[in-house]
Amino acid sequence: MKQSHNAKNFGPRLWRSLRQPLIAVAFGLLVGALVILACGQNPIAVYIEMFNKSFFTPYYLFSTLTRATPIIICAMATGMAWRAGYINIGVEGQMVTGTFVATVCALFIPGPPILAGLLAWIAGMIAGALYALLPAVLTWKFQVSMVITSLMLNYVANYITSYFVTYPLKDTAGDGLALQTPEIHELMRLPRLSTTSTFNAGFLIAVAVMLFMVFITKRTVFGYESKMGGFNPSFARYGGTKQVKVMIITMALSGAIASIAGTAEVFGLKYRYADGMLSSTSYAWTGLMAALIADLNPVGMFFVSIFLSGLQIGGSAIQRSLGIPLEIATIIQCCITLFVSVKLIFKVRQKKPVREDVKEGGAQA
Fold first, then answer.
1. Average pLDDT over residues 8-34
2. Is the pLDDT of residue 216 over 70?
3. Assigned domain for 7 exists
4. What is the pLDDT of residues 260-271, one digit of tens each?
5. Could you tell me which of 363, 308, 298, 362 has the C-alpha nearest to residue 336?
6. Residue 208 C-beta-side C-alpha neighbours within 13 Å
7. Across residues 45-53, what is the average pLDDT?
8. Which end of the chain is more exposed for a tag (fewer CB within 10 A), N or C?
9. Which positions ≥6 away from 301 have C-beta within 8 Å?
10. What span, in angstroms and rounded, lies between the C-alpha atoms of 133 and 153?
């Protein structure tokens, strides 16, 4: 009887979770259609071309999934922190820091390449986790806004890594104008999953991160405590949850996951760290959009990330074939996020400031 009742309610629950994202996508595409009309083109023809060259042609589908890999993982990193009530805007900086450390370790750790590569991944995750703990500690000890500190640390990470690839770690064997490190060893690189494209095993890592996120959120005590802390801090505090402990673990996991996004890009696609390679592509910010659109649901973030990646790949394709500005895809993404964020604004206004929760939770730590 209980299973029958759950099965009966599955449809309505699924519709409630998908209703707002689907409506937001529809409005975003509508706004995009108006812009396309302003460009003197047929929106239906443009959308058919866009989606055909992002999802329905094998080569472009593999390109979409390749680009979606770091976006998916960044979305998971964002969701890990945001669902617990900690607005981590520093995923980009944590990704940059962890990726740079992983690349340097891959270049200089002695020993068998496969073992050195594994240690490089672990070192990168540790570096990303530690970098994410900086805004957490500042929030805990000094009640500094996590939004501001995590955002500002993005610039710190980008400029520090830029210095190293410009001077001490610059690859002098190739193009002297390119600000990048030497390439990592061939045995450290992730295997390709397609012979005709750059699609690689990094996508499988993204799937694994998504499954890990589902397990953490659905099957662990920590996942329940973090969810309660984000949903109702007062209830979590009076229920015995140690808010400081949850914040530290949550932010560390968020930073470690963020580092995986960039490391998969280096080890699976670029094979070296180049200045600005992770910031110019806006992986972290697209991942943030995916997390908001999916309402922080791990499975939803996975598919929304692929959809947003498809918009970017398809947008580039129609720019080449039809002369439609690439910014059309960006307009659609931003409009979708804007329509979804209306609900988020009402949620945030109903919550207490994070620093009050951390301050009171600190007495229990």
1. 76
2. yes
3. no
4. 999 999 999 999
5. 308
6. 9
7. 92
8. N
9. 72, 75, 76, 79, 210, 287, 290, 291, 294
10. 11
- AA identity, residue 219: R
354 confidence band (pLDDT: 50, 70, 90): very low
Q: How many domains does the chain have?
A: 1
Q: Kindly report the pTM of this predicted structure.
A: 0.90
DSSP H stretches of helix in the chain: 2-38, 43-52, 58-82, 91-108, 113-142, 146-166, 202-219, 221-231, 233-238, 243-265, 283-293, 298-322, 327-349, 354-362
In order of 70, 115, 216, 236, 275, the CA distances from 279 in angstroms are 12, 29, 28, 36, 9
Please name the residue ranges forming H helices in 143-182: 146-166
pLDDT score of 331 more than 50: yes
Residue 358 has which token pair?
């951390």
> What's the whole-number average pLDDT of the chain?
87
- Amino acid occupying residue 331: I
> Dmax over Cα atoms in the chain, in whole Å?
70
Whether 11 is in a domain gets the answer no
Specify if 197 maps to a domain.
Answer: yes
Residue 253 belongs to what domain range?
24-32+43-362
